Amino acid sequence: MAKIGIVGLGYVGAASAYSIVTQGICSELYLYDIKQDLALAHARDLEDMSAIHFSYTKIFHVPNLENLASCDIIILAFRKESLKELPSRLVELQNNILELKDIVLTLKNANFKGKYIVATNPNDTITYYTQVLSQLPKNHVFGSGTNLDSSRLKKFLAKDLNINSKDIFACMIGEHGDSQFAALSNASVLGQNLLDFYKQKLGKDLDIQELEKAVISEGYFIYERKGRTEFGIGTSCVNLAKAILEDRKSLHPVSVVFGDIAFSMPAIIGKDGIEKVFELKFNEKEKIKLENSKQQIKNAIQSVKDKI
What we know:
Blueprint: E1 3-7, H1 11-23, E2 28-32, H2 36-53, E3 58-61, E4 73-76, H3 89-109, E5 115-118, H4 123-134, E6 141-143, H5 147-161, E7 168-169, E8 172-173, E9 181-182, E10 188-189, E11 192-193, H6 194-202, H7 208-226, H8 231-245, E12 250-258, E13 261-270, E14 273-277, H9 284-303
Parallel strand pairs: 1-2, 1-4, 2-3, 4-5, 5-6
Antiparallel strand pairs: 7-10, 8-9, 10-11, 12-13, 13-14
Helix pairs in contact: 1-2, 1-8, 3-4, 4-9, 5-7
């Protein structure tokens, strides 16, 4: 079976590790954090849980990044500081980009040839520079992007419509951030146009702007009350890893590198990573939103170009 490495054992990295072990998706799990005692403690704690859960995943705490070079997949979940200690995402980027450079170049020099799943924020910019620094094929590096945001979108729609979220196809597109938007002109429920279905069932038009606000603010809502998000994003990252390891050919809105930018579009993920990107047909309002979102990401990419 496969090997997975996690860089960064904060809440997201730890939640990802827990999900990996409970689901048993790989034979070996390697944990690395700059705080070595933290990674060691998580490894021991997960071993305890593994013995109860009868998991066959072997768990290793590693002192050096080079020990991850043989992994099939590495999940980047490091974070320099918490958002409560930072005035803006831009400052978060300034901090994380330097650590990213050190991590990715170290792994490149150690001849890592696997695939990166990026959870670190700002997700699109970090994903873009992970690919640039690693020089791996673009389909082997992608970010969690709006995969979780799209799940939140479907969660809200499912509650309104009183149906299972699995019966809804709908995506958040663009930046994993405040400029993302719901591409509902492409959305469907049980093969029917979502907007038509919504109006037919509830007798009113869907307020797209309010829905987008709800999706975007959901992460902030959770963060303000518990100081972190972990279970949703951790599970999201592990589902993406499963899509690769099990060659699922499943559709996920993830941050994909396109030339000089990375942003979220729905993509088929299988054993080769990003196997196909679906370029949706947007209506005029959505086209404007997409261009605005892309510009926000480009601005962020340019803001740290001198640090790479």
